[in-house]
């Protein structure tokens, strides 16, 4: 009996083994190195956030890629200049789209005005240095090399000339996509986003031309963490867009040089994530990790309209260092999927009567205390740091393209009632503050009238504003007036 | 008495000839030092020599090619210069728009630079000589460990389009030599003797000297970066190459026979 059992086992194991072997053999029959090429094609290169047209059903071809290296001054943030080293004039560099089996003939030209030699290491290349050894090129010269794309996926390319860290930190990276035969599944919108960390001599926000700071780079102490090379590259008018019902695919890379990205879209769940840009697909992902020198392909269907914020969910990078972008979705509301605010109320865990507002128009009774201005400022500051600070920042400077400033704000100082109204009821839609447009959402704040009076008084008496002393009565009248 | 008179005449003659047909040169006292990127051994010995105070200017090079037409743009042999040789010049003997007579001449090949120096009875400096003089700041012969020295160099790497500056617009260093940093890259006679493949990560394995050498003098990372980039640019060159940011200056051996 025992012998029979073990015999059975052996037989089963054998069968499993054989079938495994068969599978292996099947996979190996697709040898991408043997894919023939027919004809040649000049590659379309695009600047972020755009990507070239999909490869579709085209056969593998000889693909001509011409990439120019430019060292040029650009803007890191409002008033902050930086000398970027770029592939194709943008950070990240031009997007290259190929299919598996393509024979890429790559010409790397180094503009004569440039100071330094450069090269390119494409992670999609099978060969020494990923092409770096063959592409080392002096200013005013060009180098040609070619490679066959053997593995489908989304790959980072970057400069690998000494000092490598400095070349990458100055923006020398981009993405090359190798699509599988027949292309990736069709989607409605595709965009190109790449995160990078920057190290400047001055602190974040310090104006003027900022030099690269080697020490900070070594310490991994980034002043800016941004999408597509600068603060605000994907916000406001630069936001990427889609319509309700469309499927959006993002090609997301991380140039580094140091930081790993926790890529997240606020208010969306990725339907599919090509983990690390490879074949493995994970579904229903909230945040995907993208290592420095790595990439991921994410796609999701947008079901409801609104502004969806793209962040590195290492969240101080998003709100304090610039890693923030926007996807604006237009279309019909779908209340079944997302209701918006249905009701606001006062939550009182002590068991008091729950009062709803503002519909009932029943103002909460507060004893109009007779606080001095100094007392109001102390209490107002505390409320500010609890409630307002996250978006409007410690000194009321706001965040460019996302949250308007309160410091020296023309919009704030022009109309006290309007400002009180915004704190009480919230504000959605476009406004212009100090000449800049903001199109964002502020929720209504659950503060009582005295708290509103204190925090508003604090704001009006700080950062160069007009020193209005907002009284509780004033707040009440605004509340009752609506 | 006779000897003194003879000496005076000799000196006078020397100085006149200096003024007339030689650009100013500064004496460099030789010594030993450890270059960032040693070729064979760690320490390098430099003997006394003279170095041009300034890089060769457009004016000087123009005078040269008027007398040596074989280096004119249209006549230069293509084996010795690439397509961008004197790229901005309007023709064989007229500078381009916006080019100053006293700006450093650029877009010249190693062959042209070498011949220029030789016609003056000089030669191109070696990498070791050039680096030896260039490691000085205003006050110290070897300022490589100074933060400000390295910041200055790194700062230039990040400044676009500095080739239109005129000579003498940077600082005078310890040896009374100007413009080694902050104006243009400069040719050296043996620029290609250090093999930088361009794949710097590979070079880490190949040339352990670099890392031993820099460790031996307690090099900072900053220093590594500043000097590394000079070696990188040299490594990317071929002798016929010309570049908008690459000029040259000459040096001369000191005759030891003078008593």
Radius of gyration of chain A: 28 Å
Describe the sheet with the most strands of chain A.
6 strands, mixed
- Please name the two chains that share the biggest interface, counting residues whose Cβ lies under 8 Å from a Cβ on the partner chain: A-B, 34 and 39 residues
**How many strand elements of chain B?**
7
Number of strands of chain A: 23
Order of secondary-structure elements of chain B:
HEEEEHHHHEHHHEE
Reported for the largest beta sheet of chain B, the result is: 3 strands, antiparallel
Counting H and I runs of at least 4 residues, what is the number of helices of chain A?
Answer: 10
Order of strands across the widest beta sheet of chain B?
A: 1-4-7
What order do the helices and strands come in, and which of them pair?
The complex is a heterodimer of chains A (482) and B (259).
Chain A: H1 2-28, E1 40-42, E2 62-77, E3 80-87, E4 96-99, E5 103-110, E6 121-122, H2 132-135, E7 141-148, E8 153-158, H3 164-169, E9 173-179, E10 189-198, E11 208-210, H4 214-219, E12 224-227, E13 240-243, E14 247-256, E15 261-266, E16 270-274, E17 281-285, E18 287-290, E19 294-301, E20 306-312, H5 316-320, E21 324-330, H6 373-392, H7 410-414, H8 416-425, E22 427-433, E23 436-442, H9 449-460, H10 472-481
Parallel strand pairs in A: 1-2, 2-5, 3-11, 4-9, 10-14, 13-21
Antiparallel strand pairs in A: 2-3, 5-7, 6-8, 8-9, 10-12, 14-19, 15-18, 15-20, 16-17, 16-19, 20-21, 22-23
Chain B: H1 2-21, E1 25-28, E2 31-33, E3 44-46, E4 49-52, H2 58-67, H3 110-119, H4 127-134, H5 147-157, E5 185-186, H6 200-206, H7 208-216, H8 221-235, E6 246-247, E7 251-253
Parallel strand pairs in B: 5-6
Antiparallel strand pairs in B: 1-4, 2-3, 4-7
């Amino acid at each position: 009996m025992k012998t029979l059992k073990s015999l059975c086992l052996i037989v089963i194991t054998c069968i499993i083994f054989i079938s495994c072997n068969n599978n292996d053999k099947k996979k190996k029959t697709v040898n991408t190195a043997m894919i023939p090429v027919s004809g040649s094609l000049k590659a379309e290169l695009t600047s972020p956030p755009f990507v070239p047209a999909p490869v579709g059903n085209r056969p593998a071809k000889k693909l001509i890629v011409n990439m120019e290296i430019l060292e040029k001054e650009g803007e890191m943030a409002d008033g902050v200049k930086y000398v970027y080293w770029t592939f194709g004039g943008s950070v990240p560099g031009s997007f290259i789209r190929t299919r598996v089996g393509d024979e890429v003939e790559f010409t790397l030209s180094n503009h004569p005005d440039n100071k330094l030699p450069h090269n390119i290491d494409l992670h999609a290349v099978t060969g020494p240095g990923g092409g770096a050894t063959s592409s080392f090129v002096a200013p005013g010269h060009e180098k040609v090399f070619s490679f066959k794309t053997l593995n489908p996926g989304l790959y980072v390319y970057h400069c690998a000339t000494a000092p490598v860290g400095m070349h990458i930190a100055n923006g020398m990276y981009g993405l090359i996509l190798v699509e599988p035969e027949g292309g990736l599944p069709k989607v409605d919108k595709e965009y190109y986003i790449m995160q990078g960390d920057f190290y400047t001599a001055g602190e974040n926000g310090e104006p003027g031309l900022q030099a690269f700071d080697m020490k900070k780079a070594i310490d991994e102490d980034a002043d800016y963490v941004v999408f597509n090379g600068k603060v605000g590259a994907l916000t406001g008018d630069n936001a990427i867009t889609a319509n309700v019902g469309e499927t959006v695919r993002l090609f997301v890379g991380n140039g580094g040089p140091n930081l790993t990205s926790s890529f997240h879209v606020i208010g969306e769940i990725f339907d599919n994530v090509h983990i690390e840009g490879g074949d493995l697909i994970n579904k229903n992902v909230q945040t995907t990790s993208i290592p420095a020198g790595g990439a991921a392909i994410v796609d999701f269907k947008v079901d409801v309209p609104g502004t969806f914020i793209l962040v590195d969910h290492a969240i101080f990078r998003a709100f304090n260092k610039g890693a923030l972008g926007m996807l604006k979705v237009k279309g019909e509301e779908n209340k079944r999927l997302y209701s918006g605010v249905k009701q606001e109320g006062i939550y009182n865990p002590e068991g008091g009567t729950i009062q709803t507002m503002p519909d009932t128009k029943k103002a909460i009774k507060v004893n109009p205390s007779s606080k001095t201005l100094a007392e109001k400022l102390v209490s107002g500051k505390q409320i500010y740091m609890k409630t307002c600070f996250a978006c409007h920042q410690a000194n009321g400077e706001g965040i460019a393209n996302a949250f308007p400033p309160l410091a020296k704000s023309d919009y704030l100082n022009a109309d006290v009632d309007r400002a009180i109204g915004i704190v009480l009821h919230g504000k959605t839609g476009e406004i212009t503050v100090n000449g800049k447009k903001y199109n964002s959402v502020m929720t209504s704040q659950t503060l009582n009238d005295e708290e509103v009076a204190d925090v508003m008084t604090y704001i009006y008496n700080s950062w160069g504003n007009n020193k209005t002393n907002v009284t509780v009565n004033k707040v009440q009248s605004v509340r009752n007036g609506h | 008495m006779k000897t003194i008179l003879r000496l005076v005449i000799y000196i006078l003659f020397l100085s006149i000839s200096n003024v007339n047909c030689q650009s100013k040169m500064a004496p460099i006292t030789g010594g030993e030092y450890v270059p960032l990127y040693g070729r064979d051994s760690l320490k390098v010995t430099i003997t006394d020599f003279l170095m041009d105070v300034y890089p060769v200017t457009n004016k000087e090079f123009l005078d040269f090619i008027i007398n040596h037409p074989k280096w004119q743009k249209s006549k230069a042999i293509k084996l010795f210069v690439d397509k961008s040789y004197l790229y901005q010049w309007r023709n064989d003997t007229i500078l381009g728009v916006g080019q100053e007579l006293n700006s450093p001449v650029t877009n010249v090949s190693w062959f042209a630079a070498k011949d220029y120096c030789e016609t003056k009875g000089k030669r191109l400096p070696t990498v070791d000589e050039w680096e030896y003089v260039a490691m000085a700041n205003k006050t110290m012969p070897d300022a490589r460990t100074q933060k400000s020295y390295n910041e200055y160099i790194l700062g230039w790497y990040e400044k676009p389009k500095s080739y239109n500056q005129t000579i003498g617009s940077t600082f005078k260093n310890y040896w009374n030599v100007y413009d080694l940093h902050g104006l243009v890259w400069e040719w050296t006679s043996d620029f290609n003797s250090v093999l930088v493949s361009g794949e710097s990560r590979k070079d880490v394995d190949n040339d352990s000297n670099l890392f031993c050498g820099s460790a031996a003098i307690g090099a900072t990372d900053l220093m590594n970066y500043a000097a590394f980039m000079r070696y990188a640019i040299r490594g990317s060159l071929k002798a016929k190459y010309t570049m908008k940011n690459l000029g040259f200056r000459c040096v001369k051996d000191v005759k030891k026979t003078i008593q």
